[in-house]
Amino acid sequence: MRPRRLAAAVTALGLLAASLTTPGSAAAAHGNDYSALIQRASYGVPHITARDFAGLGYGVGYVQAEDNICTIAETVVTVRAQRARWFGTTGDAAANVTSDLFQQKVIDDRVAERLLTGPRDGLHSPSNEVRDQLRGFAAGYNAYLRRTGAANLTDPTCAGKPWVQPITELDLWRAFWTSMARAGSAGLADGIVAAAPPSGSAPVRPGEITGQLPAPKASALAAADDGAPAGVGSNAYGLGRDATASGTGMVLANPHFPWDGPDRFYRMHLKIPGRYDVEGVALVGDPFIEIGHNGRVAWSHTVSTARRFAWHRLTLAPGDPTSYLYDGKPRKMTARTVTVQTPGGPVSRTLHDTHFGPVVVIPGAFDWTADTAYAISDPNAANNRALDGWLAMGRAKSVGELRAVLDRRQFLPWVNVIAADRDGKALYADHSVVPRVTDDLAAACIPAAWRDLYARSGQAVLDGSRSACELGRDPDAAVPGILGPAHLPTLVRGDYVTNSNDSYWLANPQQPLEGFPRIIGDERTERSLRTRLGVHQVKQRLAGTDGLPGKGFTAGKLWDVTLGNRAYGGELVRDDLVRSCTAHPVATASDGTRVDLAAACAALRGWDLRVDLDSRGSHVFTEFARERGLRFADRFDPANPLTTPSRLAVDDPQVRTALADAVRALDGIPLDARLGDIQTEPRGAERIPIHGGWPEAGIFNMTINLLEPGIGYRKVRHGTSFLMAVELDRNGPSGRQILTYSQSANPNSPWYADQTRLYSGKGWDTIKFTEKQLKADPNLVTYRVGERRR
């Protein structure tokens, strides 16, 4: 439905609105119906009210289909193991076969069905409320598709495509599982598919892929410095009474997620009168608010550094590479041949499992030989608690209640929580699902050859031949195999907590969190420039030394600080860099080319040390930083973690080489160009200027894009996506928010570019949580969706 077609219907819906907001009213007579009231506010943001969770899910599924049906449909194609069938297998689509083999294994193993087995208490299996929400979502999505028809969709991405089909609840549960396992099993999918015993040890079936396969995504995940999934990140502040002008709590939510594809956020406000009332965002295709606020508590998530899986080194039985020794006795691996359909016919692969979990191969690092193989245990592969967890978060009335939810449910798959409440308490917690690798277990069970890896990256390789090296159970843990709350870092403060994707250590520098198992993150190690700037911004605002009037935070000042677009790396070293390139105006690039640095020096000299649209020369520093030119002369000092290192290593020849490489990379682009002229986001034929920049340059407002030679940065890959500065006032939540890439991915939607243009000018939409706030919106359009349940 389009607002212009609905305006005449608004006045006819007053009675419906009243029935949905009055418990026990005549609306209860329609208990067998799906029914939801949709109030579309400015920028297309839906405020959805229903009598029950089935109706609420129906409303969410319907409006998300209106705005992003192609995105949801493609996700369903993925979890149905049909990417190769519909999208091909050549060129960039070559990975579709691997994806399908992995997802088909999930289907064959009935993974999603097992998530739903057990008491419906939200801990052992999902509650009836959550099941109703997903059932309603599928029904709402299908109703929109049935009403419109695939041939009449306005999004050219999927209009008329045969892969746009009705969805089921099971599709949604499979998508949910894949999201939970993103930093574990799903992130290692190509390594699971690559796992094969030494050649010649098993019979080959017709059409079966055999032999060594590449595993680039698994290799990247294992090689990463920490356990964060690739392509996502975040900043967040939880501000307590001592940090805000009002003395109440305030939260900055600033996730850095992809601007395209299934990881886009979707803004919405969901309400069941007297039972649930939350505003914020969820990933497209998800039914509950994952980042947001209710009337008393606000929260955000940042990506945690903890590892989500543990390796188990298998000692193989002599002469049988598909059996492994366990307490001296052989155990046979489970082998399953998985078959998927491709344009060229069926393709099969035999995959292997152990009692720990799947066997994984990462060529050159974790190989399957005649003597040794490696399996993983992934506690998130059994995490069926998350949707009930987010539902419970949305009902918390204080930081204390929120912390109790985290302690009891332990559901967060790979993120931290940063929160604040109306009473002015701020919370940091990494209560995510972490394999139970305690210090004692690590000392006893990580073989000597793998201890450096654990110390360096938190990646635990345990001796899989001994039952004593199983993960075990903490007495306070929600389920076996994970660290309990006593082993997880938590901090409650009256001033502030913060995180920018480094570990928990300096959530508040005045009270460092230390003594936790290495698998969660590192301590007393160098922090990123983005983390350091994030803390400096808070401290300077509290001291009133950041150039803004007054001291302490209001929602407006929190917005201004976040979008101040400071480049902390430039603040530290720009002047030294300019002095160096002035004294040595010619340098040698990595390829041996001699490069004149004079124009780059001039551009850096005139740069305002920000990444605003009008900033000139910022791209020179960005490329210098990306070429690893930020080399420091001083060492990190754990006693001064926010100010070290800080001095440019001007005598290191690599510094000038990096600047020369930056100049070469920017060939054809004026070195003193305005950032807004060369960093843009396409919306149809329009190119919208975008501010922000790369974290390597020490930029808080992160914008990740690739340099196109001679042109600039023409497409945002990921970065600031949802931005919320919410204050929990006694009269109700208030503040600012925006979805940077806009509500819809459909180029023919009225909500395809509006928030992107707004973000370009550092504008915002207001919090609209109360009825008064919502009714004040001049663009409000109301309609009802529903049907009789089948």
TrEMBL record:
Belongs to the peptidase S45 family. This is Penicillin amidase. Residues 1-28 form the signal peptide. GO terms for biological process: antibiotic biosynthetic process. GO terms for molecular function: hydrolase activity, acting on carbon-nitrogen (but not peptide) bonds, in linear amides. Keywords: Hydrolase, Signal, Zymogen. It comes from the Bacteria. CDD domains: Ntn_CA (cd01936).
